[in-house]
Structures are given as C-alpha cells and as structure tokens.
Specification:
Elements: H1 6-27, H2 29-32, E1 49-51, E2 57-60, H3 63-69, E3 72-74, E4 77-91, H4 95-133, H5 140-175, H6 189-194, E5 199-205, E6 214-218, E7 225-233, E8 244-250, E9 259-274, E10 280-282, E11 285-292, E12 298-303, E13 309-310, E14 313-316, E15 323-328, H7 330-347
Antiparallel strand pairs: 1-2, 2-12, 3-15, 4-5, 4-9, 5-8, 6-7, 6-9, 7-8, 9-14, 10-11, 11-12, 11-15, 13-14
Keywords: Coiled coil, Membrane, Transmembrane, Transmembrane helix
Coiled coil: 97-131
Transmembrane segments: 7-28
C-alpha cells in the first residue's frame, strides 16, 4: 500500500484551493462587474426631450408621431385686454326705421319734383311779365295767373322741405347714427339690416367709460357666443335701462325682442386667448405647449399668468404672433417631458 507523500498532499490541497477561489470569483462576478454587459444595454434609446444651452427644455415629435399621438395645434384668438363690462341687450325691430327712411325718400323726391315745377312756373311768369311790359302783349289776368301759380308752387316746395326736415328729425331722434347724414346717405350697416342678413341690438351699459367696440352676446338658453360690432350711441327713444344705450350690429339674424347677456372689453392692448383644453397644470401653475411655425416638430412649455383665466379660456400675453398652441394632447407632451427629466436626474 502506497502512502500519500506530503508533496502529493500539498499538490491536491493547492488544486482544491484554486478551485474554491475560481468558484468564489464566478459567483461574485456581478458585484465585481467582471461579466460582460447585456447586449440590450448597448442600445441607445433616443430621447424626445432636448435642452439647449440656456436650459430651455423642448419636446420634439415628428409629424407622423404627432398624428399617431392625436396631437392637435390651433391658433390663439386675438382679444382685447382691458376693463370688462357686462350688460343686458335686446334685439330691436328695424321695421319702423326703414318705414321712416322710405317716407323721407318720398319727401325728398317730392322736393325735387316741386323744385322743377317751381322753376317752370317762374319762367312762365317771367315770360308773361315781359310780354305784358312790351306794350301789353299779354293780359293782366294772364300775368296774375302766372304769378299765382309760381307762388303756389313755391309754397308747395316749402311744405315738402318742412316735411322732409321733420322726418329726418324723427329719424335722428329715434335711431341716432342710423339716420344717416342730411343728404339722406345712410351708413353701410343699413344694407345688411334691410336685407335681413343682420340684426340690430341695443345694449345698455352702466357706469362710466367707453363702450367696447366689440361685444360678445349670449342667448339665455345657449352657449354660443355671438359677436356684435358697435355702431354708435343710441337715442333715448330706444333706451331700456339706466345708463347709456349703444347700438350694435351682429351678423346673426335674431328674432325681434330677444334678450341677451352682453360682455365686452375696453382697451387697446391685444392679447391671445387659448382654450381651456390647451392648459395643463404642473407645480401648481397653468402651462401651454407652444409650437413655432419655423419649428413644426418642436414644442416648448410656456407658463400662463395664474390670474389670466376667463370663462372662455386663458389669456397668454407672452405668445408670439405666429405661435400655435397644442389644443389636444398637451398632457401627453408633459408626461413625456417629465419622464425624460426624471430619468436624467436619476442618472446624475
């Protein structure tokens, strides 16, 4: 029987120790990062979020990606910023207006006819007067008849002029600026009112200040806004409430006597109004995503003043003239931006 020599024992122990060391290294390779990286980690995932040198963050989506995501953009509405004024409005019956104007036109036609008739009668009177003076070549009776006819025509002309002046005064008192000027020329608003393609609205404004050039009208049972454009100050005859009453014209044909709520803004500053669907909330503030026409694939988040909310949207004073806002899909852009922003912070 052979005995194991000390050298053989040491050799076997060395092999065992080497095996144990490699076993420990193999199972601890994750902690020591001695294994090869997974193939998927080598694939770079493209980021949709970009940050420029100034720190401005933008989300970039191709046109195809925008369409697939259901993102829609729209142009903000230009509105006036200033003092808001609310009032009551009523649709006026314009039939009396055009009845008066028709009578005035008839009276002025009579003036033209009678003026021509007076010119003829005066010429006849002068002719007979000349014959009478020329050795009585015309009778005195004929001369008296000619003079009487001329005086009669002059009186008829004066009466026609007085009637026309009275009709014009009634027009001015009853319809203000819609009466037109003294020559009978009416304002351009009359044409569409006469053809029943527009409506005349009286709006009673309380308090001091200029009447808004545009008013938004709302029916009691409807949500649609109807735009009305100012014509001028209304006369007292159509006033129906305390304060000043103004005449406005709307292109919407409305039934006579309809009552409406009116709201307008006085001021010269023009701001942009974005719809409520365009606003997203982040960190307690309202934001909109803006797209420039020069960069149709880039969207930048822009803050709105917290106090700029109105019933029909939000005022965005910082928007450029050619800016477009995301009116659908803004929440998706915010989620994409925050996802990449948080990922970048975790890497740091």
């Amino acid at each position: 029987m052979k005995l194991i020599t000390p050298y053989r024992a040491m050799f076997v122990m060395g092999l065992v120790i080497i095996g144990l060391v490699w076993t420990v290294i193999y199972y601890a390779r994750d902690e020591w990062r001695l294994h090869d990286a997974a193939p998927d980690d080598d694939i770079a995932v493209p980021s949709l979020v970009d940050r420029d040198e100034s720190g401005m963050v933008s989300v970039k989506l191709t046109a195809a990606a925008q369409k697939a995501s259901g993102i829609e953009v729209g142009q903000p509405v230009a509105v006036r910023a200033g003092t808001e004024r609310e009032a009551q409005a009523t649709v006026l019956d314009v039939e009396p207006l055009f009845a008066l104007r028709s009578q005035l036109h008839e009276a002025r036609a009579d003036i033209a006819r009678l003026a021509s008739q007076l010119a003829r009668s005066e010429a006849e009177r002068d002719r007979i007067q000349a014959l009478y003076n020329d050795d009585r070549n015309a009778s005195e009776r004929a001369l008296q008849t000619a003079r009487s006819q001329a005086e009669q025509d002059r009186g008829a002309l004066a009466a026609a002029r007085a009637r026309a002046d009275g009709l014009y005064a009634r027009l001015v008192q009853g319809w203000g600026t819609l009466a037109g000027d003294a020559s009978g020329e009416g304002p351009k608003e009359l044409e569409r009112l006469a053809d029943r393609r527009a409506s005349l609205v009286a709006i009673a404004l309380r308090g001091e200040g200029e009447a808004p050039p545009l008013m938004q009208l709302r029916l009691p049972d409807g949500a649609d806004l109807i735009e009305a454009r100012r014509i001028g100050l209304a006369p007292r005859s159509v006033s129906f409430a305390a304060g000043e009453t103004w005449l406005y014209k709307t292109e919407r044909v409305l039934p006579t006597g309809t009552r409406l709520a009116a709201r307008g803004v006085t001021g010269t500053e023009v701001l942009h109004l974005v719809p409520n669907s365009a606003v997203v909330w982040y960190a307690g503030l309202p934001w909109v995503y803006v797209r420039d026409d020069d960069e149709p694939e880039e969207f930048i988040r822009q803050a709105l003043p917290a106090e700029s909310q109105r019933p029909d949207g939000w005022l965005a004073p910082a928007l450029e003239e050619d800016a477009r806002v995301v009116i659908r899909g803004a929440q998706l852009l915010l989620s994409e931006e925050l996802k990449h922003t948080l990922a970048d912070e975790n890497d740091d």
